Amino acid sequence: MKLGIHAYAWCSRWTDETLPLIDRVRSLGLDFIEIPLMSLETLHADQARSRLAANGIGAVTSTVLLGDTDITSEDPAIRRRGVDYLLACARATRDLGASQFSGVIYSQHIRVLPHRPRELEWERSAEALRSVARAAADVGVTLALEPVNRYETFLVNTCAQARSLVERIGEPNVKIHLDTYHMNIEEKSFADAAALAGGDLVHLHLCENDRGVPGTGLVDWDGLFAALGRMGYRGHAALESFVDVTDNMNTWVWRQLAPSGDDLVREGLAFIRAMAKKHGVP
What we know:
This protein is of the alpha/beta class. The protein has a single domain, classed as TIM Barrel, CATH 3.20.20. It has helices spanning about 20-25, 45-55, 75-95, 120-140, 160-170, 180-185, 190-195, 220-230, 260-280, and strands at about 1-5, 30-35, 60-65, 100-110, 140-145, 175-180, 200-205, 235-240. The termini are close together.
């Protein structure tokens, strides 16, 4: 398993000023950093790629769709804008020297419908992502769908729904990304969800139920890591906690979740490494 950390553990936006985080990731003995693509205009991929290479650190990327890029929108212009944005994210991922891009990329983050999702929303999402996936394949990038809780999306809340959408899209470079914070709300079993993702599981967000220090809350870490050990999971896994409220997406960090960001990272990584060793995750 490749162990990394989301840049949001320390910052609320990726800019040239956050490039030293790559050095910090190396100092922690991690394999990769997850770079958010919410603000493509502040990302200079060539500088980040050089810094990554100099440190021997890998990268993955992630984002969410907002109201003006919702590929399930009633407005075809917004759907086209969403496809264009996802294509730009795939290119930015390639330009960083990375090959994996994930997140809430199937519908608007925080959109409330007056009804359950219809075939129309599912098909709009699948159609858009099918075209994005084909273009992403041309630049060597894999997409991964991240189920999130019912308060953050109406469309994909569980691994079963992510698998259904993956199958509907029907492209080999579309995979699954699970997040323990959301699994704690929506899944019946951490182990069963991981097993259902199976070989399509390429990324994990490792978060406590309150987004605080992993190991201090309610997440069934033993169940999850036992399943990962049985699967021989070798994909990416990033510690993900947010340090602050951002102006580019909702994080809802209304209180201090750890004494400091560094304490959260240090204690969380020690716990995750111990769990991986305990359950034989490679």
